Amino acid sequence: MVISKTKLAIAAVAAMAAAVTLAGTGLRWSKGEAFFQDNPQELIDEVWQIIDNDYVDATFNQVDWREVRTAYLNRDYTDKPAAYEAIREMLEKLGDPYTRFMDPSEYGNMKIDTSGELTGVGIQLSQDEETKELVVVSPIEDTPAFEAGIQSRDVITKVDGTPTEGMTTDDAVKLIRGPVGSSVILTIRRDSQDKEGAVKSSREIDFTIRRDRIEIHPVKYSERRDQGLNVGYIRLNQFNANAASEMRDAIKELEVKQVDGYVLDLRSNPGGLLYSSIEIARMWLDQGTIVSTVDRRGIAELEKANGRSLTDLPLVVMVDGGSASASEILSGALQDNDRAELVGTQTFGKGLVQSVRPLGDGSGLAVTIAKYLTPNGTDINKEGIAPDVVYELSDEEREVLGKNRELIGTVEDPQYAKALDVLKKRVKTAVSAEALGSS
User: Fold this and answer.
1) What class does CATH assign to 219-350+370-430?
2) Core-most of 174, 204, 257, 319, by most CB within 10 Å?
3) Can 174 be counted among the known catalytic residues?
4) Which carries the bigger pLDDT value, residue 139 or residue 89?
């Protein structure tokens, strides 16, 4: 598999936080639509062929995939919804929530999601592979969900009173989205955990959220004087199409201000465009591997630094359970190359690569085709990345920051304060090394 800049992406908002490649063009659609109108089996077979050729698990979850083809092609389908339901049923046999069929409406929404322009409340959803519950990866900063107080790891149990049990992420997205200015009631279950991650207690909360058009500027940055350091603080909310250019501008401006070092905040960043994470990694790394992908044939493809980093100043990266997919690629690259120390808590753990294919009638298919590995060869799927310095916010600290968002990334933010401690040590080490080198 050849990975090109124009084909790498990560689903951004509605449904998942797993790496995907965008493949194919609309040139086939008119012909495919004609096929579908005459014979819906053509669409079903198109999906089957893609899975057969590219799915990451060559055993197809221990399913006889050829027998599946025969069974589904021998059925009669009266209309499009019947064929769509058959495709979804067929894909369920793979036991992979990230390999999924999208009807034309869902596929259109997915393309909107990756563009960075949204209409809704501003949350990223994932489906727990074991419980099938709908879990918030994170709210997008400065969106209605963020302002309302939705948090990473919240479980959505109802949408406007409708239980979400049995819903897919696409089902939930359809209910959550709506006209700008209208409202939706999200009922969430919020678990309180102990230091070992065991659930201590749970509570349900209703949030009434007003839908809006969401324009996402992913990078915020500032120069500040904290604990005797001139710090360049950069918060990256997601890896959309603007992320790399905005990050480049931020680093260049902070370099002019002669900061001592950087704190890069990736907390609650659910991902975005994969090529953006690679471009951004190259701004911090002068050499080394950034990420590798491995398909079912064991073929690995590498993305590497290109000797064009924008700074070599000390760097600390903040992560948490809402840091997923592209965030994990970036933080894993910086950690494995000893470019930065990670501060915070274990990341989300999404390391699957998907290819998103347009199908004959304007629908789409997301199929898991590979897994990605950090530069050291670590498979982080379901595991996440462990920070170098663990700092878990207490429930009380989390609640204070939730109610006072302006405190995030200040000395009153305990995780940021810990990151400053780590940065001070790295700056001191760098200054000592420079002095030794010049003597």
Assistant:
1) alpha beta
2) 319
3) no
4) 89
